[in-house]
Design brief:
α1 (5-33) packs antiparallel against α2 (39-75), α1 (5-33) packs antiparallel against α5 (126-144) and α3 (86-114) runs antiparallel to α5. This protein has five helices and no strands. The protein has 147 residues and is an all-alpha fold. The protein is elongated.
Amino acid sequence: MEAVYPYAHIIHLVLAIIFLGYVFTDVFMISALKNKFGKETDEKINQTLGAKSFKIFPISLLIIVLTGGMMMSRYINSNAGFFETDLQKLLVIKIVLALIIASGVLFNLFTKFTGRKKPHFMQEHFHKVVLVLGFFIVVLAKMMFSA
């Protein structure tokens, strides 16, 4: 497992940057385009971006979660303990925040596949929540190895 860790770490970081970069772009750039070009153009923009992001981001998030799990097993396990060190405590908080994001993405996929309408909160605010949680995940990751 130790030999795989550096590769999992690089893949994890690159995909996390891409994932949060897209969310940042959506929250601050794409949302600024809403209601600027008319309803029909807005719908075309949303459909185009939605189709692309639907192909890329669930798989990206799955790989982020899998590589994160691989890396987590280095610091949290039956030998090292679960809440013994500050690093482990911060890592658990980070995992909980990541699971909130993953749960929201799974819920969005569920609504898409079942044809159900997303709740207003998920349509209008979920990416903002993801961006805030992502920010805290990055800060916690830095704090884990700074303490």
